[in-house]
Every structure is written in structure tokens, then in C-alpha cells.
Design brief:
single chain; Urease, subunit C, domain 1; alpha/beta; eight-stranded parallel sheet; eight-stranded mixed sheet
Length: 405
């Protein structure tokens, strides 16, 4: 992968004159152009064509940056709905910690990122929401996802059981209000007391209600969807398995066209057959790849904290020191992309939808990000034929300068 910013200087600013990238395979909403040309002016994509470039007017050539990226892929910047940190830093930390995590994931192609919390004391979460909302207002984050504390102790995963609580709508509202309009999603065990009323509350306030860390039955999950739940938090994980007599939440979430299913494609959270099942049943339009990343993403093995709990990362897999539960991931979205194409053998266009278009649409950002189209933000990821990142652009500025060696 190209060297991330911070090890070779700072990210560049958007240029005042057009940048033209030529010769790439462009993955568009309508399909892939094998030899395309994309023009970026300022922060926006201003033109996309399969035609050869027109000769620049006399005297204009020095005002256009032309970059030949032949033999590479250009795809839209990745959109991560569910991410707890990276680069050795957590979204539960200081503003500098948050920005460190954001920069780490940007260097791996994630140009739009929602910060996820982890179960903690309510007062701590309220303070955290205030900090994260400021960074979202500045444009560093795309909002906040509250994962916990309103989840089932039976399916708590890497959350502190002592801090869990039922989803009282008044307390859910407290977190939403603390986010000052930046709350994007709340994960709930909707079968708990207050669960369905909380789903309705979230839907009324334009916040995504996600079913997750749940011990719900099939029937209870159907009720939650009818009440307004539209996302499955890391499908298959932290919920009852699919059974032939007790199909549980997995069947209900896969079968309903209103639900987008999150998948963590790191080779640990899901068997390849489970991922294939989800893609076949939900279809490529209803899958969102997420990282569920924690501090170790982009760093490596060692001891870390996830909320108040200690985590051991060994060979890239994060598990609680006490109990051994999977504790998020060390995944970055470029690795999810690479694995999906090279190991899972999914079509590139479907993978791009899962990493960009689908989560952007879910967040209500599809008019700005999630696909390569004129008028949208110039958020681009340059990949070589092995699907390694060779460049990242965000809003017209190179976060990772093109490495075409």
C-alpha cells in the first residue's frame, strides 16, 4: 500500500485548477468503464467520460494536472458505518485521538466515517457524544453510532455487562440529544423492555435503529422491523444463529427488503459461506461492509482497551483478555475490498456498492458521496490490479498521493 500521510509529509489541499485522471478502470453506478477519464475541479467531480481527452486550448495545458493512472482501478471513497478507532487511538478518547483514528482509516480509503461508541456509563457517553458531534460539525466525521448500552447481556460480546441497561426511550433520547443532530444510528436489543418504543422514537427523529447484540426470536425481530428498524448490526455476530426450528433474527433481517445488513469481512467474524449466503439472500443492494475496527487497526498486535475492557490482539485478531470474545476487528476497508474480490470472488461492482453506495444511501449522503458521478465530492480510491491502495483523494485533495511505481 502507498505510504500513509504522517510518514512522508502532510496531505495536500485541493487544487484551484482541474485535475484529470486518465486511463483507469472507473467503477460507476452504471457499470465499469475500462479506459475512463475523470475530471476533478476543486472539491468536486466535474466530468467523467470514456472518450479520449480533447486537446486543451492554447495556453491552458499548464493549468490542468493530468495524471495517467492506466492499469489501475478508480472507485469511490469507502463509507464506514461502524468503526471504533484505529492507529492506536479510540473514538472514546480525546479530539486528537479521534483525528488520529480518522487519518488512519482515510489512508486506507475510508473517506466517510461514522464514529461508533462502546458501552460505558451514560454520563461518559453523553460527554463523548458532545466531543464527537463537534468533530462531525467540522466535517471530520459523518456522525455518531451508539453501540450499547441498550443491548442484551446474553449477547454482549465485548461490552461490559455491568454497564448494560434496557432501552428506556427517555435514555435513548438523552443520547440522541447529546449528539446535537449528529446521531446516525443506535444499536438495540429490541426484545428488551422499551425496545420497540425506542425504535419508534429513533425513526421519528431520523436516526437509524439497528438490531444487534440481541437475543431476539424471529417473531420479535419482525416486530422490530415493523416498528422501524432498518439495519442489522454485524449480521450473524452477537445474535442467535440461524436454526431450522428457531430461525431467530438472522432470517428476519435477511428476508426483509427494508433492512441493510452489516458484514465484517475480515475472515474471522464470518465464514466465507455465511458471507455468500448474506449476499445471495439480501442481494448486493442491501449489504454494507463495515470494519467494526478498534484501536489496533493499522497498527498491529498488542494489548489495547475497548471501552473499559482489556483486549489482546494476536495475529490480527482482537479478543477480550477475560473471556476471549471477539472484540471488534483490526480491519480496514481496503482489506475488506481486497478479500471480497480475491477470496470471496464477488464482482467488483457489488463490492463497491457494499463499501460505498449502500452505506452512503443509508446515511442520507448519496447526493454527495458513495459513487463516481459529476457533482459529487471528489472522494476517490486508486487501486492496482492486486487491489492494493495506490492513492486516496478526499474532496479533491490527495490524502495518499498516487504511487504508480
Amino acid at each position: 500500500m502507498a505510504t500513509p500521510p504522517g510518514t512522508r509529509g502532510t496531505a495536500q489541499s485541493a487544487t484551484s485548477h482541474p485535475q484529470v485522471l486518465t486511463g483507469a478502470k472507473l467503477v460507476l453506478p452504471t457499470g465499469t468503464i475500462p479506459d475512463g477519464r475523470i475530471t476533478v475541479t476543486g472539491t468536486k467531480i466535474t466530468a467523467i467520460t470514456a472518450e479520449p481527452p480533447h486537446r486543451a486550448p492554447h495556453g491552458a495545458a499548464d493549468m490542468i494536472d493530468v495524471i495517467d493512472v492506466s492499469g489501475h482501478w478508480l472507485v469511490p471513497g469507502f463509507v464506514d458505518l461502524h468503526n471504533h478507532g484505529g492507529g492506536g487511538a479510540s473514538f472514546a478518547g480525546s479530539a486528537q485521538d479521534v483525528l488520529t483514528a480518522v487519518r488512519t482509516h482515510r489512508a486506507h480509503g475510508t473517506t466517510t466515517l461514522v464514529a461508533s461508541t462502546v458501552t460505558d456509563d451514560m454520563d461518559v457517553l453523553v460527554r463523548q457524544a458532545g466531543l464527537l458531534s463537534e468533530l462531525a460539525e467540522q466535517g471530520d466525521l459523518a456522525g455518531i453510532h451508539f453501540e450499547g448500552p441498550f443491548i442484551s447481556p446474553c449477547r454482549k460480546g465485548a461490552h461490559s455487562e455491568a454497564l448494560l441497561r434496557d432501552p428506556d426511550p427517555a435514555e435513548v433520547r438523552k443520547l440522541v440529544d447529546a449528539a446535537r443532530g449528529q446521531a446516525r444510528m443506535v444499536t438495540l436489543a429490541t426484545e428488551l423492555p422499551g425496545g420497540l418504543d425506542s425504535v419508534r422514537l429513533l425513526a421519528e427523529h431520523g436516526v437509524i435503529a439497528a438490531v444487534g447484540h440481541t437475543d431476539a426470536t424471529y417473531e420479535q425481530t419482525v416486530q422490530a422491523i415493523e416498528a422501524g428498524a432498518t439495519v442489522a448490526t454485524h449480521l450473524f455476530n452477537a445474535m442467535p444463529p440461524l436454526g431450522h426450528r428457531a430461525p431467530g433474527p438472522v432470517a428476519a433481517l435477511l428476508e426483509d427488503e427494508r433492512v441493510t445488513v452489516e458484514l465484517v469481512n475480515d475472515g474471522t467474524h464470518l465464514h466465507p459461506a455465511a458471507l455468500a449466503l448474506a449476499f445471495r439472500h439480501a442481494g448486493p443492494g442491501r449489504v454494507a461492509f463495515i470494519t467494526d475496527a478498534m484501536d489496533a487497526a493499522g497498527i498491529g498486535d498488542g494489548r489495547y482497551l475497548l471501552g473499559p475492557l482489556e483486549v489482546e490482539v494476536s495475529e490480527g485478531v482482537a479478543r477480550l483478555v477475560e473471556g476471549g470474545s471477539i472484540a471488534g476487528s483490526t480491519l480496514t476497508q481496503d482489506r475488506a475490498f481486497q478479500r471480497a474480490v480475491t477470496i470471496d470472488r464477488l464482482p467488483v461492482e457489488d463490492v463497491v456498492a457494499a463499501l460505498s453506495a449502500n452505506p452512503a444511501r443509508l446515511l442520507g449522503l448519496a447526493d454527495r458521496v458513495g459513487s463516481l458521478e459529476p457533482g459529487k465530492d471528489a472522494d476517490l480510491v486508486l487501486l492496482d490490479d492486486a487491489f492494493e491502495v495506490r492513492g486516496v483523494m478526499r474532496k479533491g485533495a490527495w490524502v495518499v498521493a498516487p504511487d504508480l511505481a
